[in-house]
Amino acid sequence: MQTKHIHLIGICGTAMASLAGMLQQLGHRVTGSDAAAYPPMSHQLAALHIPVHEPYNEANLTPRPDLVVVGNAISRGNPELEYVLDQRIPFTSMAALLHDEFLPNRESLVVSGTHGKTTTTSMLAWIYEVASRTNPAFAPSFLIGGLAENFGTSFTVRPRTPDGPNPFLLEGDEYDTAFFDKGPKFLHYFPDAAILTHVEFDHADIYPDLAAVKTAFKRLVNLIPRRGRLVAFDASLNVTECIDRAFCAVERYGLLPSSFWHLSDLTHEGTTTTWTLRRKGEFFATLTLPMPGEHNAFNATAAAALASGQGVPTEAIVEAIRTFKSVKRRLEVRAEVYGITIIDDFAHHPTAIRETLRALRTSYRGRRLVAILEPRSNTLRRNVFEAELVDALALADQVVLAGVFKSESIPVTERLHPENVAASLRARAIPAQVYPDADAIVAAITPQLKPGDVVAILSNGGFGNIYEKLPQALARNEG
């Protein structure tokens, strides 16, 4: 691609911010705009000196860019999009530009699924990075929907080499691509090999039901060539249905002794998880991961399985998992204030909330667990999973809920009502309160917290900067 001025509308989304850095790395002049920038992607863009204009305004498109990338959160009525259409400025989507500019002559490895994509992709990238220390052919390019702590970034683009395989590792998102392309982003990535972690109903704003979600994943599986490979979780009937007609080799992973990749002897000590991994019944490795939670052992197994099948040496896999540093906003300890531990997790679905709280129960045994939830994702803002949300939050000792993010955009009959969730939790003898926003929560909860408490803040957005406000309030309260 000739050097251009490329403007990204909605630049602070995780994938869009990553694409911005990738385009800059190729020498393009990159600008962007968003309604609200928040960490960690706002910090990454600032470190790259990529200007971010707030709010959206057609003036942000002066001087006229050569190309505009329209984020999938952008819809008609956005002033910049309307200006682009009126002025006939060339535009495209993130996924289409990624396919056209970055994926040709590379081995496309795609991590997909309702849960675990970001962590699994980060693990896979780190495995390849460790392997590249002894074999440069494994040096990965990658795009991750989060900030991988081993790299300090969400993306890397390595130069193509003529002898390949030039692996490009991608987090494959099933969300739609753009206002003009309502198909899933991952259908642009044409995987040579892929991982499928879980399949559940999610993204209730664009998928009417579970059947539609499964159709999207079936279409992804149908893109994998016969020479390719699919690593898929084995304890899900939904996954089984989605891979039933795969033309490529399929390797299942999980706790079943019959699994192609079988986990056994799973043990947890503090924040460390250890297990034995067998391949077709034969010992493969003992893996140690410095993260809590059975779900993270599954994520690491999936990454190990895909990497091994692509020729990565076992010793590199073992070393990478042992030294993996997680992803920002995944069980991330944000502060320790007077014996109170504050943890940030990117919660978007009741299943993810359940697994996060299970992991915290394992790693912080005997400590009071307080869950603070902002219903912010398009699934959590709706009442479709109200019962499942209650079950997940019931793993905490105390629950605090914020008001539904931008509740006015959800029809009343479809909207989650946090008061109903809190009432159901109280009926189970679990203290639960509802407050309108982060400031009200901080004011109410600060005097209630005691040394030894573990506070899990669950949101997939900025949550009124509660991650900074709560530690500051605790420090003032104690002082």
TrEMBL record:
A UniProt-annotated Pfam family: Mur_ligase_M
Which residue ranges does the record assign to the Mur ligase C-terminal domain? 329-461
Q: Which residues form the signal peptide?
A: none
> Which biological process terms from the Gene Ontology are attached to this UniProt entry?
cell division; cell wall organization; peptidoglycan biosynthetic process; regulation of cell shape
Q: Does the keyword Zinc-finger apply?
A: no
Single GO MF annotation:
acid-amino acid ligase activity
Which residue numbers delimit the Mur ligase N-terminal catalytic domain?
5-99
Q: Does the keyword Ligase apply?
A: yes
Q: Which residue intervals define the domain Mur ligase central in the entry?
A: 111-307
Q: What UniProt keywords are attached to this protein's entry?
A: ATP-binding, Cell cycle, Cell division, Cell shape, Cell wall biogenesis/degradation, Ligase, Nucleotide-binding, Peptidoglycan synthesis
Q: Which PANTHER family match?
A: UDP-N-ACETYLMURAMATE--L-ALANINE LIGASE-RELATED (PTHR43445), UDP-N-ACETYLMURAMATE--L-ALANYL-GAMMA-D-GLUTAMYL-MESO-2,6-DIAMINOHEPTANDIOATE LIGASE (PTHR43445:SF5)
Listed name of the protein: UDP-N-acetylmuramate--L-alanine ligase
Species assigned in the record: Granulicella pectinivorans
